[in-house]
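queue> pop job 88
queue> type: inverse folding (structure -> sequence)
queue> payload:
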């Protein structure tokens, strides 16, 4: 009897939903659509383009759509697709492994050859939470425990787990020197960036002082002079055609505070080897040789079976993804794409193989193949395109899958609280409610995620803005206004 009642209740609920769907949008839903129309037809964006999709995850109704099927540049909203595919294909507990290996013997405290560091893409050996220092401390202690206090050879960087195309197709040439465009590799240290610091000289006309830390294998071309006190400081950093030289030009006012810029490394593997060598020396392990890459090493050393001295695992994907999404870390996304490719193909990880792995996931999920064009993992490329309805379809799938729902939601920035939306939507009903991923490249802004209405209904939304020439802050304001309106929606 009890079972029969439950069955009747379920049928009644289903019938109610079908009846509501057949009846069309409610009065409050029509009012919501009218309000969103007014927001997205604001004269400020008259010459721009919006792509918007809003869907109830409770009723599965589309509450609002504007150019929802139009392919648009997503910027970092593409990370939603990259992470979704990585979580499905690698799993939230996936960890990258890095090993210290050798083919040489140990005699009287000396490793009689080279120390090989072999990576599979761990992006977390950096300054966040002091992890790089902790890893290097652990490695030095393990080497000493193995009886090694001196390395008679050098440090060899084996980055063969990934191909050597570290940047993405369609990345703009004029930002390749910037830290946010650091190339990916199977060995990554300090997020593959260094810091250029420019200090004024004592007097106007003096050459400024320029420092690059840590050493990143880049040549610096010094073109900065000291300007008059109180003058405008204008310093540019550009990469030369050979990709191994940075030209630092402009002027910095006398008495001005130091100016810093993050710059991308040219060769991640060599950077890692050099940094590891210095770290070992600092920890009391002498190294007589030089840092080299695996390609150079293979030509001069007989290929003997290696033995593993140390193995280190990264934090799990769920932790890596939280950093990647909340602060929009491009390198992490490019690394995940290549890791997916390596896992699927059994060959060195590449962007192309990763894109194929992601496509296999989305095809299995029923995502329309013509609803996106993916060429990298981060969204830095201007060749990436996706529709708002595709992003919402992926968000809906993640929300509906118990394996992904909580893990994915925890990676998103919280409006007014943290990440890239920490300063947005404060003192509104969206604050501490909307969770979302931002997107930002020139003439592109995006925001996609989830928000709860006044009724507690969960909505998935994607708002993409392209082809505008107004200040990006104005576009963000309009976007935030729309999300605030969603948070204030009441369906009953």
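queue> result:
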């Amino acid at each position: 009897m009890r079972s029969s009642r439950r069955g009747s209740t379920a049928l009644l609920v289903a019938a109610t939903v079908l009846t509501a769907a057949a009846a069309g949008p409610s009065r409050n839903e029509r009012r919501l659509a009218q309000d969103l129309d007014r927001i997205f037809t604001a004269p400020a964006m008259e010459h721009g383009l919006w792509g918007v999709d809003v869907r109830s995850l409770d009723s599965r109704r589309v509450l609002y759509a504007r150019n929802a099927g139009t392919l648009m540049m997503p910027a970092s909203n593409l990370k939603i697709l990259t992470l979704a595919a990585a979580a499905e294909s690698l799993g939230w507990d996936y960890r990258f492994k890095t090993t210290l290996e050798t083919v040489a013997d140990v005699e009287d405290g000396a490793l009689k050859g080279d120390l090989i560091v072999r990576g599979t893409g761990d992006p977390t050996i950096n300054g966040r939470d002091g992890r790089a220092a902790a890893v290097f401390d652990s490695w030095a202690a393990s080497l000493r425990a193995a009886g090694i206090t001196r390395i008679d050879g050098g440090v060899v960087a084996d980055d063969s787990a990934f191909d050597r195309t570290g940047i993405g197709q369609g990345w703009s040439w004029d930002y390749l020197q910037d830290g946010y465009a650091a190339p990916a590799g199977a060995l990554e240290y300090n997020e593959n960036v260094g810091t250029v610091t420019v200090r004024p000289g004592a007097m106007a006309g003096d050459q400024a002082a320029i420092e690059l830390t840590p050493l990143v294998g880049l040549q610096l071309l010094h073109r900065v002079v000291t300007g008059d006190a109180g003058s405008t400081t204008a310093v540019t950093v550009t990469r030369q055609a050979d990709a191994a030289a940075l030209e630092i030009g402009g002027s910095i006012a006398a008495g001005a505070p130091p100016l810093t810029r993050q710059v991308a490394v040219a060769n991640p593997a060599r950077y890692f080897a050099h940094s590891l060598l210095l770290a070992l020396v600092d920890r009391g392990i002498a190294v007589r040789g030089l840092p080299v890459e695996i390609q150079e090493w293979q030509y001069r050393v007989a290929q003997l079976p290696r033995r593993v001295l140390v193995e280190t695992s990264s934090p799990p994907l769920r932790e890596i993804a939280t950093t990647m999404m909340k602060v929009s870390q491009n390198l992490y996304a490019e690394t995940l794409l290549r890791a997916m490719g390596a896992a699927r193909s059994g060959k060195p990880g590449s962007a192309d193989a990763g894109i194929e792995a992601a496509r296999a996931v989305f095809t299995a999920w029923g995502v329309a193949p013509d609803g996106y064009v993916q060429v990298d993992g981060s969204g830095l490329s201007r060749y990436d395109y996706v529709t708002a309805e595709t992003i919402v379809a992926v968000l809906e799938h993640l929300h509906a899958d118990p394996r992904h729902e909580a893990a994915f939601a925890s990676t998103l920035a919280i409006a007014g609280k943290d990440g890239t939306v920490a300063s947005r939507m404060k003192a509104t009903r969206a604050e501490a409610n909307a969770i979302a991923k931002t997107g930002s490249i020139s003439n592109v802004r995006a925001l996609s995620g989830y928000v709860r209405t006044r009724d507690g209904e969960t909505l998935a939304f994607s708002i993409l803005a392209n082809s505008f020439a107004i200040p990006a802050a104005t576009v963000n304001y309009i976007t935030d206004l729309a999300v605030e309106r969603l948070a204030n929606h009441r369906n009953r």
